[in-house]
Automatic annotation (TrEMBL):
Residues 2-93 form the Formamidopyrimidine-DNA glycosylase catalytic domain. InterPro entries: FPG_cat, FPG_N, H2TH_FPG, Ribosomal_uS13-like_H2TH, Znf_DNA_glyclase/AP_lyase. GO terms for molecular function: 8-oxo-7,8-dihydroguanine DNA N-glycosylase activity; damaged DNA binding; DNA-(apurinic or apyrimidinic site) endonuclease activity; lyase activity; zinc ion binding. Signal peptide: none annotated. Keywords: DNA damage, DNA repair, DNA-binding, Glycosidase, Hydrolase, Lyase, Metal-binding, Multifunctional enzyme, Zinc, Zinc-finger. It comes from the Bacteria. It catalyses: Hydrolysis of DNA containing ring-opened 7-methylguanine residues, releasing 2,6-diamino-4-hydroxy-5-(N-methyl)formamidopyrimidine. CDD domains: BaFpgNei_N_1 (cd08973). One of its GO terms (biological process) is base-excision repair. Residues 239-273 form the FPG-type domain. It comes from Mycolicibacterium hodleri. This is Fpg/Nei family DNA glycosylase. The keyword ATP-binding does not apply.
Length: 288
């Protein structure tokens, strides 16, 4: 799933390549991705792109007074092309393309596709005149990179949830997902199952420093990359996430995994849990 660094890089790509161009046509191949219907996508036709924005993990293209906003969810992506095909998309087809935006005369202009792989279709698109009309954006917590140490401390104070769950709750802190939360907690040397309100003052400082450094480094590495190379860039910078069974780059211990029904996370026992192996939720259920 694209998180804060990748979405910021996609917004930067659109700012540099789409700003100043005119929306020639919007093709919708999967009507289910549209979460708003007034104004319709055709309202974008003829409008000049004035910029691109990010709200947490939400990406928006601004044209005139309208914002075309998307949440790419787990398997969605933005694919840029310097010359898109002008052939209209067929609604209901088997193509992974859900929506296409032509920036100029279709067939002779650049643009981008919003695509989604797999069978679970969760990609969502809104067209609004105010981003706050997207309920999920209106309910976002503060952006992870906008927080101060005092702000983070205030958020976690009195919160009895597990730290992994808390920092990935978009209503609490916006922008952090499964992958970067693993990386942040590894750098901070904090167990994913630690209770948020019980973190000591030094641990809070380590967590804050890790959050800012991990996300800032990822943004620096991602911005300027082409949309096609962002996924590979993200994977190359991960130290524990999706590296189950591999040695921890800090201490050499084996990276472990906790699995749930539809997701998993990774951690280093030596660095984060004092050597304790956390219970694998999926395996625990099988043994009952």
């Amino acid at each position: 799933m694209p998180e804060l660094p990748e979405v910021e890089a996609l917004a930067d790509h659109l700012r540099r390549h789409a700003t100043g161009l005119t929306v020639g046509r919007v093709d919708v191949a999967a009507l289910s991705v549209l979460k708003t219907f007034d104004p319709p996508p055709t309202a974008l036709h003829g409008l000049t792109v004035t910029g691109a924005n990010r709200w947490g993990k939400y990406l928006g293209l601004q044209a005139g007074d309208l914002h075309l906003i998307t949440h790419l969810s787990r398997a969605g992506w933005l694919r840029w092309s310097d010359k898109l095909s002008g052939v209209p998309l067929r609604p209901g087809g088997k193509s992974p393309i859900a929506l296409r935006v032509h920036l100029g005369t279709p067939g002779d202009a650049p643009g981008f596709d919003l695509t989604e792989a797999g069978t679970q279709k969760r990609l969502a698109v809104w067209l609004v005149d105010d981003p706050m009309k997207v309920p999920q954006i209106a309910s976002l917590g503060p952006d992870a990179l906008s927080l101060s140490l005092d702000g983070l401390t205030a958020i976690l104070k009195g919160n009895t949830g597990r730290i992994k769950t808390v920092i990935t709750d978009q209503r609490t802190i916006a922008g952090i997902g499964n992958a970067y939360s693993d990386e942040i907690l590894h750098v901070a040397k904090i167990s994913p199952f630690a209770t948020s309100s019980r973190l000591s003052e030094p641990q809070l400082g380590h967590l804050y420093d890790a959050m800012i450094s991990v996300l800032t480094d990822a943004v620096t590495r991602s911005v300027g990359q082409g949309a096609a190379t962002l996924k590979g860039e993200k994977r190359s910078g991960l130290r524990v996430h999706a590296r189950t069974g591999m040695p921890c780059p800090i201490c050499g211990d084996t990276v472990r995994e906790v699995s749930f029904t539809d997701k998993s996370f990774q951690y280093c026992p030596t660095c984060q849990t004092g050597g304790k192996i956390l219970a694998d939720r999926r395996m625990s259920k099988l043994l009952k």
